[in-house]
């Protein structure tokens, strides 16, 4: 008699981790683009303080989303255990991880800049913040592109 294949409870876990990974990516990318756009349009109160308030809210979301992405990303890699595929897949993964590091380092600088702006009584450097959130959005969209090549390319 042929033995039945073992049950696959891990499939649901893998799907759940993947779902969380994509959800966090959506929050990070969508929020980044929205914040960048907010700095592009004329500030409602004439001082850019509304845009800074939105950016502050996004910073919380961003770091929560990135923490989730790193944790679930490692979980995604676990789905390939015990060995990762090589070739183009591996090259894409390496590029993605390198870009993650670049976005993280750049974001630490951006967050620090926002904290300094919030604490200062002076004017808001709209152009600088617009560029910072534009660069974040661009980096995240590039990451999203690499991720889709990784998963479906
Ligand atoms: C340390 C960080 C990360 C690791 C280790 C990681 C790892 C992975 C892995 C292994 C996959 C599955 C690829 C496959 O099935 O062939 C994946 C998919 C994906 N990742 Fe990441 N990732 C990380 C960060 C990110 C970031 C920052 C974003 C977005 C900004 C992102 C967005 C996605 C998306 C959208 C998918 C595709 C899901 C799908 O279409 O099924 N990941 N990631």
Tags for this entry?
79% helix, binds protoporphyrin IX containing FE, 0% strand, 153 residues, mainly alpha, elongated
Structure description:
The chain is mostly helical and 153 residues long. It has one domain. Helices cover 79% and strands 0% of the residues. The chain is built from four helices and no strands. α1 (10-40) runs antiparallel to α4 and α2 (49-78) runs antiparallel to α3. The protein is elongated and about 75 Å long. The mean pLDDT is 91. Bound molecules: protoporphyrin IX containing FE.
List the helices and strands and how they pair.
Blueprint: H1 10-40, H2 49-78, H3 87-119, H4 126-152
The structure holds protoporphyrin IX containing FE.
Helix content: over 70%
Mass-distribution shape: elongated
> Structural class from helices and strands?
mainly alpha
Mean model confidence by pLDDT: 91
Number of domains in the coordinates?
A: 1
């Amino acid at each position: 008699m042929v033995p039945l294949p073992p049950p696959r409870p891990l499939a649901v876990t893998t799907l759940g981790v993947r779902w969380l990974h994509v959800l966090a990516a959506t929050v990070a990318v969508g929020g980044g683009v929205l914040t960048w756009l907010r700095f592009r349009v004329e500030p409602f109160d004439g001082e850019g303080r509304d845009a800074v308030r939105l950016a502050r809210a996004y910073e919380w979301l961003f770091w929560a989303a990135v923490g989730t992405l790193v944790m679930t990303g490692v979980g995604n890699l676990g789905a390939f255990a015990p060995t990762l595929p090589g070739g183009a897949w591996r090259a894409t993964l390496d590029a993605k991880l390198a870009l993650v590091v670049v976005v993280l380092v750049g974001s630490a600088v951006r967050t620090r800049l926002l904290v300094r702006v919030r604490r200062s009584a002076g004017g808001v450097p709209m152009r600088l913040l617009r560029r910072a959130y534009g660069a974040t959005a661009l980096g995240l969209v590039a990451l999203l592109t690499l991720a889709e090549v990784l998963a479906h390319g």
